[in-house]
């Protein structure tokens, strides 16, 4: 039996990597998936792949750091599927491991905009819809960078710590409204998030000081499997928490 039959799901950053794989896994479990990303061609390709396998998917290009874009996405979801059951906040950007003394205003605003403001905008819109229908589930893709201080630069670390706090607050505040909010904190995952990035030398050296104990990186499928679990009724009593998926790296 499929775990997410007819569940309408929004996945942000769904054009590649973890987001793409989550969208595919959710569709395979019977969900109707709405994909959004800043790259229109990428999400169109994912929709084509999903529908070719018999799944249901649509897409709309948007920058979740822009409030008006998020509002447009939510309107499109309601027009297309009439409801929303699950929100997966996956879209995120790195910060080149830049330490605080070197963080420009532009870098700070870009990282905070995508990694924190975006999920805030989507959560605010989604919870309003969930309250009207009496249920809903949110999954935020955080990071072990949101649990510890040395896995990324200052902006990324701050954004993911804040996303963890937002997750816990939403989970607690709306627990009695049949709305759940959890986060996944991945360790190393084989995606294209580092593609084209030029690491800041000092920050990269400091980050690398703690990577000697890191196990091999996971594939996106490992995170997608966990997301399916958190979206399904099998995790009904899990709320307001962060599940670490790092192969044991932070257990050292």
Task: Give a quick precis of the structure.
With 252 residues, the chain is of the alpha/beta class. It contains seven helices and seven strands. Helix content is 43%, strand content 15%.
Total number of β-strand segments? 7
**Domains (count):** 1
Give the overall shape, derived from the CA principal axes.
globular
Rg result? 17 Å
Q: Kindly report the CATH topology.
A: Rossmann fold
Would you tell me the structural class of the helices and strands? alpha/beta
Helix content estimate = 40-55%
> Could you spell the SSE succession in H and E letters?
EHEHEHEHEHEHHE
Provide tags for this entry.
single chain; alpha/beta; Rossmann fold; 7-stranded parallel β-sheet; 7 helices; globular
How is this fold's topology laid out?
Elements: E1 8-12, H1 17-28, E2 32-37, H2 40-52, E3 56-61, H3 67-81, E4 86-89, H4 105-133, E5 136-141, H5 154-173, E6 179-186, H6 201-208, H7 220-231, E7 242-245
Parallel strand pairs: 1-2, 1-4, 2-3, 4-5, 5-6, 6-7
Helix pairs in contact: 1-2, 1-7, 3-4, 4-5
